[in-house]
Design brief:
Mean pLDDT: 87
Strand order of the largest sheet: 1-3-2
Order of helices and strands: HEHHEEHHHHHEEH
Structural class: alpha+beta
Number of strands: 5
Radius of gyration: 19 Å
CATH superfamily of the largest domain: Winged helix-like DNA-binding domain superfamily/Winged helix DNA-binding domain
Low-confidence stretches: none
CATH topology of the largest domain: Arc Repressor Mutant, subunit A
Largest sheet: 3 strands, antiparallel
Distance between the termini: 55 Å
Length: 182
């Protein structure tokens, strides 16, 4: 198989888009650079352009921890849920939402950290969220027993229509009567 030609700066965003659509999981800029046969600086510029251009379509470029993927735009979620059926549209319980909020804002955190905030045992809800791919292990704490640390998974950001951790809404200010205790 012959090497494909090096894409032009104009063509590179389309090459990156094709690579991201073909990938099974989020891809780092280095891997995209190698696959496209161009430098990482060019790939990053192409990713920025792709993000701007896709904002006017049904796709969004999502970045999490330096890895990128294309996801559907959150405003079209009801249509995607209709196509995919019940699995995509299952609602999260209040306990699951509380747990996700703690993990998202305190990441990385242990199950014990979640329980300290929620005030109840969170074994089942943490296991369920991990099983559904909304949270993932982010290592182990350096405390006795070396408990697992959790962080939001890429699917968490997809589920809530966020492009990454920077898109999390700010926590309410102290003194706000609606302030959540995180």
């Amino acid at each position: 198989m012959t090497e494909p030609p090096r894409p032009s700066a104009e063509e590179l965003p389309r090459v990156i888009e094709a690579l991201l659509l073909a990938a099974d999981e989020p891809v780092g800029a280095g891997a995209l650079s190698r696959a496209a046969g161009t430098g990482e600086r060019s790939v990053r510029a192409a990713l920025e352009r792709l993000a701007r251009e896709s904002a006017a379509r049904g796709l969004r470029l999502q970045e999490d921890g330096g890895r990128y993927q294309l996801v559907t735009a959150p405003e079209y979620a009801p249509y995607v849920a209709r196509l995919l059926g019940d699995e995509a549209s299952r609602r999260l319980s209040r306990a699951a939402l509380e747990t996700l909020a703690v993990v998202a804002y305190r990441q990385p955190c242990t199950r014990g950290d979640v329980e300290a905030v929620r005030g109840v045992n969170s074994d089942r809800v943490v296991a369920l969220l991990e099983q559904r791919g909304l949270i993932e292990q982010a290592g182990r704490a350096r405390s006795p027993g070396r408990p697992r640390l959790f962080r939001p998974a890429t699917r968490f950001y997809e589920h809530f229509g966020l492009l990454g951790p920077a898109d999390l809404p700010p926590l309410p200010e102290e003194g706000d009567p609606d302030r959540a205790e995180l």
